[in-house]
Amino acid sequence: MNLRQIDNHLLEIREGGGCISFFGFPFFAAGIFMFMASLKIIPFQNADEVTEWSYIVLFFMAIAFTLVGGGLLFGRTWKTIDLSKGTILKITGTIFPFLPLKKEESYLHQFGTLVIRHDPGDSDTAETFPVCLISKVDSPEFLLCSASEYGEALKHAEMLAEFLKFPLEDRTTDHKRIIGDSDKGRFDVSQGNPDVSMPPDMKSRITEHNGKTEIFIPGKKVTIMAAVPLAIILTVIVIYGHSVLEFFEQTKTPKFVQYVFIGFFLILFLGTNLIALIHRLAGARRNGTLVSINRESIIIEERSGWSTTKTVIPRADIVDIDYSTISSVSEPIMSKNPSYGDFSDRWWFKALRRFARSKGVQIKSRKGIHSFGCGLPEDEVKYLFSIVTRYFE
């Protein structure tokens, strides 16, 4: 994707090409090969055994592969924003001018807000951050561009908002925020609730010293289930070990071969599982997340066993701080659909809150969205959020 401002009134967004073209080339090449094979231009070694139906099926497969590969390889989309005309022209086509194009025109006066959203994706699609125009009336959104990283989407959105002179809303997390307007930031939540009390059954440990606050969130405890693989291996050895030794004696297997086989089995299955269990038990007390907060930055350390992943988020890069719980997810649903009423006190919602996992505190920076405290109770997430925002008020 490429954004290019041509002049003060014209901006072009071009999508397609690049890595997508490389991804489409193998499909296109395979389609061309199948076309030539179906037309018998490329002969098969066993051509006498290939039926006519096989050539027909191969021909239709070639059409599918060529269309998919050609679309990825040669397909392009151009979106041109013309402020002088007040229009957005979307052209979908290919790099070949003689092929038909699809044109769609929209008018800027229909829209009033530019929005960044978050699409988490699924097993078939990747995570994306689309940038859309929101209509003033009840009509569909207009997708301007999309990025795989939050920082890239934010950069494009700020450029588009400045060009269009539209307000920019960040809706990537539960609470929307108008970017560039400090009076409407997420910090209003902590300022409006300055006396958030500490939950009585907090899992996190909080310490303060030398102007710095450290929050340690313990990881998952090592349970008896961690020893199940080792127990299965030992059970197999006890049950079948004697039979294996008898088999070696009956077949008069050389001692050297017996030792190699038994040693390989013990090292591969018993040894690796034993080392893994010892590693988990030894690092159990260290497992967890350590968050260090000061006036200059937020440092998040993810500790697992003896390994540590450290993320440093400078204050200058922080765009917003938010939190996500099941209540914050349900609030927009209740506000958009008043007919549903307030279901926060209903029994089924309370039961759902016990099983639903929170996303914790979310730090949005120009390099991405970082979270900590996932899975913690709602009250604890809000308390940790109030501690973090206290340093950036």
H-E string: EEHHEEEEEEHEEHEEHHEEEEHHEEH
Strand segment count: 18
Overall shape: it is flat
Rg from Cα:
30 Å
Structure annotation, total helices: 9
Strand content: 25-35%
Q: What is the spatial order of strands in the main beta sheet? A: 1-2-3-4-5
**Major sheet details:** 5 strands, antiparallel
| Overall average pLDDT | 84
Which stretches are poorly predicted, pLDDT < 50 over at least 5 residues? 181-194
Please identify the structural class as seen in this structure: alpha+beta
Distance between the terminal alpha carbons, to the nearest Å? 36 Å
Q: What count of structural domains?
A: 4
Q: State the helical fraction.
A: 25-40%
Structure description:
This protein is α+β, with helices and mostly antiparallel strands. The chain has 4 domains: 100 residues, no CATH class; 68 residues, no CATH class; 127 residues, no CATH class; 59 residues, no CATH class. The chain has 9 helices and 18 strands. The strands form 4 sheets. The chain has a 5-stranded antiparallel sheet. Helix 1 packs antiparallel against helix 2. It is flat, with a radius of gyration of 30 Å. The two termini are 36 Å apart.
